[in-house]
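Notes, Module 5: Reading structure tokens.

Key idea: the token line is not a picture. It is a compressed description, and you learn to read it the same way you learned to read a sequence, by spotting repeated patterns. We will look at two proteins. The first is printed below with its tokens.
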Amino acid sequence: MSLRFLLTSWGNPGNLNPFLTAARRLRQRGHHVRILGEPTHREETAKAGFDALAWRRPAPPVLPGNIGDDPVWNEINLLVTQIMFGAAIDYAADTIDALRNEPADAVLTNDLLAGPVIAAEAMGLPCALLSPHISVRPLDGVPTALTGLIPDGSANYEAAESATHERLIGLMNTQLPQLNRARAAFGLAPLKHIFDHYDRADRVLIGVAEAFDFPPKRLPANLRYVGPLLDQPMWAQTWTAPWSGQPKRPRVLVSLSTSFQNQLSLLNRIVTALGRMDLDAVVTVGPAMAQETITAPSNITLLHSAPHDAVMPEVSLVVTHGGHGTVTRSLTHGVPLLVLPMGRDQADNAARVVARGAGLALNDSATEADITQAVARLLGEPRFRVAASRLGKAIVPELGSPALVEEMEAIAVQRWRRSA
């Protein structure tokens, strides 16, 4: 049976790629897929061969200036208040327009968009939330998102985990009236708690390897791990290695975020530190830093981008901000990591790497000396590569998993059976 799916995404290129991966898998099974997302994503979506629709109503978010100096909480505040719930009515209205223009059998939406879930419920359609990162909804036994904590049962861990858990719940619950206003606008009953929103979805799909995550004590009934969604981005340029033959000294890949995270200072410190070491390095600056001036020593090659699956087999270490895609690719190639988180889910990814012994983590304010010392340890102590290889081997079986497709088919078919 060929089914029709509407996928809705938002944000930077890192958010789009998992949805393009999901769309390709659905198409390979014979289904028809449309993607509703940012206007800036239309070109890449169309090049991938999908009907590309763009959001019309939601206004660009504006970072508040009165919530402190913590960039992680600045960003989560923006996501929660202006995108996830603050713009829910607009995202819902655009989604309904797309569904009325061309019907679908089910909706798959980014987990940080509440609007499409409201739209699907209002139209009686099954809906799944896709989280291409660790779960934002707290899971029993797993550190709350944004903590960057490693669960060890200590009093310090419990206190830090409890404080962040309460802070996140408190922030999100301030948006319950906004969510219920959006629901009422489309004829839906109010919810009693902000996280009830996740229970309105037929599925919550975690696009992370279960082997990578900390194990929950129990899972919500509608949650499934579906494995990493890591097709190579279409904008990644072809790879011409700056070296040849067998390596005479270590080789390192440096990759910071594809989107802007004010990473120029960190990138310059990394380049300076590596430039003083006996190694060769490739730095992919990505779209965010393409226009910046970075001075590279002779042992470092600067590239706009490169297909990481081709580069990583040739290197001994990856230095990264800790984005899920880069971290997972590194591990599947058995390459240890130095992670310098700059926000989002990056500290949480770093915690999972460090907990498994597959790398080290530093604050993004780390000095050149700190970076040099960490790189020397990671290159000089074989245990890190052994641990990275062990974790990577556990992740590999989850790559290319059919779970996402099977779950989307299941909720769409259940709808047909209910209405038959």
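Here is the second protein, with the sequence above and the tokens below, as before.
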Amino acid sequence: MSLNHGREQLAIPGPSVIPDRVLAAMHRPSPNIYEGELIDLTASLYPDLKAVARTAHSAAIYISNGHGAWEAALRNTLVEGDGILVLATGRFADGWADLAESLGIDCTRIDFGMQGQADPAKLEEALQADTEKRYKAVLVVQTDTASSVRNDIPALRQAIDTAGHDALFMVDCIASLGCDRYEMDQWGVDVTVAACQKGLMTPAGIAFLFFNEKAAAARGRARPGLYWDWHPRANPEIYYQQFGGTAPTQHLYGLRAALDMIVHEEGLENVWNRHETLAQAYWAAVDAWGAGGKICHNIADRQKRSCAVSTIETAPEDAARLRKWTEKEAGITLGIGLGFGTPGSAGYNRRFRIGHMGHQNIPMTFGVIGAIDTALKALGIDHGDGALEAAAKVMAANTTAKE
């Protein structure tokens, strides 16, 4: 008998759970794309997007996934033959570097592996050695979705400044924007890359670039091409220039509803605090399971963990068994062991990921923890008890509604 006959839940690190309000806002006929409501709605998005990124600088919207935003960031600031320094933590900074190399950009990578955080001291050392200022940009992700490490962006900025280097500082916030604290202007980031399908709770299909004056000036030597050029998108003379053509109409209505929830109702500081509390509830559950088995966090130091995603290690094959059981029997889809080998390999099959980003609350958190706990028991996997109680204590200690 299967108990999976209710509402299914995604617990992968993006695309994340889409709120009913966002779905309802998108479920409408296509609007007039030349004048009227859509033009006004689009204009209202930019101040709120900037508020989420914590920047007063420019913003551009692209009809793409995060990879498209990666390419746009590179095309607007670099030319073939330029050198860049990539701080490779987990999998996704490497992906950004691969794309850069396909554009003829010379990439130097400092590899911190699948469990390491980018080391500011190594960054400073590399930049001090670059006496000819060959590196035009430093690339890093704030949160790596595969490993769940969270990099210390202010510390990396300080390393660049201490080295006295003028490279652009580019940060991928695709997995972290609207989940982990991020302060673009305060932390001295020149280019921020983001997308809509994770913390911003909107179906995949639109991405964002936020860029300051230093990055805008770099465009003067670049040749981004008409479609990727961020200048007309951020400074349009005609509405369609904001999207390089037809607007992603339904997505814009959905994004408007999502930003209302984040910025104008819950408030960004509260959103960050909620993500931190729910993440800590998951961490407490994992610690409880690990007390009686071989389940553990991929990132041991909680100060280096993302509040958007948790990567969990198990005994060989157990993660694959868990993922299969929770999806079939409980309607909970867990993330795969991305970046730890090819599908079916030993490293891949002993890891799973929990996405706790965006539209998440206490019952949804208990649903995922309860499903995993049930799977551990059903499959006879060694584990400690008390996961649900440990998670409950964390959430109870951080609620505001106390009698």
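Summary for the second protein:
- The domain at 9-16+267-397 is CATH 3.90.1150.10 (Aspartate Aminotransferase, domain 1).
- Residues 268-290 form the longest helix (23 residues).
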